[in-house]
Amino acid sequence: TRTPVNVTVTGAAGQIGYALLFRIASGHLLGADVPVKLRLLEIPQGLKAAEGTAMELDDCAFPLLRGIEITDDPNVAFDGANVALLVGARPRTKGMERGDLLEANGGIFKPQGEAINAHAADDIRVLVVGNPANTNALIAQAAAPDVPAERFTAMTRLDHNRALSQLAKKTGASVSDIRKLTIWGNHSATQYPDIFHAEIAGKNAAEVVNDEQWLADDFIPTVAKRGAAIIEARGASSAASAANAAIDHVHTWVNGTAEGDWTSMAIPSDGSYGVPEGLISSFPVVCKDGKYEIVQGLEINDFSRTRIDASVDELKEERDAVRALGLI
Ligand code: NDP
Fold first, then answer.
1. Residue 77 · residue 44 · CB < 8 Å
2. Predicted TM-score (pTM) of this structure
3. Is 15 annotated as a binding residue?
4. What torsion do the CA atoms of 181, 148, 120, 248 make, to the nearest 10 degrees?
5. For NAD(+), which residues are the binding ones (predicted)?
6. Pocket lining: 132 vs ligand 1, CB cutoff 6 Å
């Protein structure tokens, strides 16, 4: 029998946490034959609600769930962690400046990075979901110098999935017919969903669509602003779809991308495609044997270049701001 994999979830009592934990425990994160132990990290005010969720997890009698531990201490939460899903973050509230937001999140992600550095397992893989996700990931990564930088990633898979769905709708294709779509840059309104290399049932997606105005004025803003549209419709931010994307991200990282396809992950740049080294930016990646690699050699047209650069510029500004705050 396999040893259980330790999965740590922060912000476990939040709404994404609630949608996420049951799927981890039922085997969707790592596989139907992989037992898991859950560690739930919450702030003190969130501990009681996390206990309630743990009671419900117990009541599911998931065969793969081998234990649940709840704590408000990152040193305990990340002890021996193999996978860490950093969901809890300080949300932007009305009137809050970006500097304040970055500083508040630095207070969360820096100690978590330090705890990961000191206590996590050697094979630790980190996914940051809590916003601003790319820069929160950068803060945690900088605080964990003994962990290979590439183990720190941020989520753009929800944007990727949203783009798949919008493109399928537009073309009448099924999402399973679409391959090689890319989200570039920051998980923010500047992100760039790129269909120029995508394929729909083997045909180039941009040629199938053949409508640059739809791309610029409809597709890109719809994908980038989908979160706001969901808040408007639902009265609460997306949670189940965000949790689903987090599951997809880790599952793909560990188990690989399908032959002839790739996915989107925000990862520390190696300088590819003109993205400054070290920035945590979204790229097209292929995953195999538990590792990812940036897809190389794609031709970037002017339409794409302008948009990738704009999103990367935003990431540089965020990096410079957290650097000025002494967080990295
Ligand atoms: P959610 O569970 O709804 O969201 C958590 C984070 O995910 C937010 O930063 C949110 O960003 C982000 N996020 C990323 N992508 C998406 C997406 N597509 N849709 C929605 N959210 C997205 O927040 P809750 O307030 O319900 O729960 C947060 C929990 O975290 C609370 O229980 C709180 O106590 C806890 N917390 C724990 C910490 C810790 O463990 N140290 C630290 C801070 C908080 P955005 O705000 O931009 O929507």
1. no
2. 0.97
3. yes
4. 10
5. 11-17, 105, 112, 129-131
6. no
- The atom of ligand 1 lying closest to the CA of 88 is 30
Residue 61 neighbours by CB under 8 Å, 6+ apart: none
* 284-290-292 Cα angle (round to 5): 20
Q: Which residues of 299-327 are buried (b: 16+ CB within 10 A; e: fewer)?
A: ebeeebeebbbebbebbeebbebbeeeeb
What's the alpha-carbon Rg for the chain, to the nearest Å?
A: 19
Cα separation of 24 and 101, whole Å?
Answer: 29
**How many CB atoms neighbour CB 253 within 10 A?**
23
- From the candidates 187, 197, 249, 251, give the one annotated as an active-site residue: 187
Which residues 6+ apart lie within 8 Å of 253 measured at CB?
125, 127, 153, 265, 287, 290, 292
8 A C-beta contact, residue 312 and residue 281 = yes
Token pair for 115:
């705890």
Can you give the length of the chain in residues?
328
Is the CB of residue 134 below 6 angstroms from any atom belonging to ligand 1? no
Q: Is 24 helix (H, G, I), strand (E, B) or coil?
A: helix
Active site residue 187: yes
The tens digit of pLDDT for each residue in 61-87 reads 999 999 999 999 999 999 999 999 999
Pocket test for ligand 1, best of 51, 129, 238 (most atoms within 8 A of CB): 129
Report the amino acid identity of residue 5.
V
Query: How many whole angstroms separate alpha carbon 305 and alpha carbon 301?
Result: 6
What tokens appear for 201 in the block? 């049932």
